[in-house]
Amino acid sequence: MLRVLSMVSGGGTNLQAIIDSVKNGMITNTELVGVISNNKNAYALTRAKENGIDAKCISPKDYESREVFNQELLKAVDAYEPDLIVLAGYLVVIPPEMIKKYKNRIINIHPSLIPSFCGTGYYGLKVHEAALERGVKVVGATVHFVDEGTDTGPIILQKAVEVHNGDTPEVLQRRVMEQAEWKILPRAIDLIANGKVEVEGHRTIVTE
After folding, report:
1. Does 110 qualify as catalytic in the annotation?
2. What is an annotated GO biological process for this record, any one (predicted)?
3. Which residues are annotated as a binding site?
4. N or C terminus: fewer CB in 10 A for the chain?
């Protein structure tokens, strides 16, 4: 049974997709053991508690330095003994020591087809604003392993979504969530839980 810890900063729509997929059997061989947020007001914490999942807030604001926060965050993560850490809209930089310790065991969902519209500064609505400004016809989402860079780890799954005339960033964001993010994130977890993802160099080999 794959022990999954999710880390979230906001509303937790991707977290809800994971919870629902575990319940309906789309994700198999998996237990969601905890949720950590940096934001005590994140609705994701409520979602977790309503579904009987242990949840806690660990905020950089509560510690005298980023170094101390990083240490406490890693302690909290370790306490869950996770096999996989899922960043589902987590807007805090992951400590390098955590990336090293959990190499190829941290995944992230990003709302674009990496390597487009990714890296430092590209998050949330900013991604969709940039895509519309550039006039692309296709956007999407990517699930990837987390490495020391920003959105640079090995790609696991991607799904394309069409841009429509008249799209606003908010409308496009919602379509990408519904048509891509909420589908490929649960799928990636299920593949990992069943030993169907291997990392070779900077690529993954996925056995569907």
Report:
1. yes
2. 'de novo' IMP biosynthetic process
3. 12-14, 66, 108
4. C
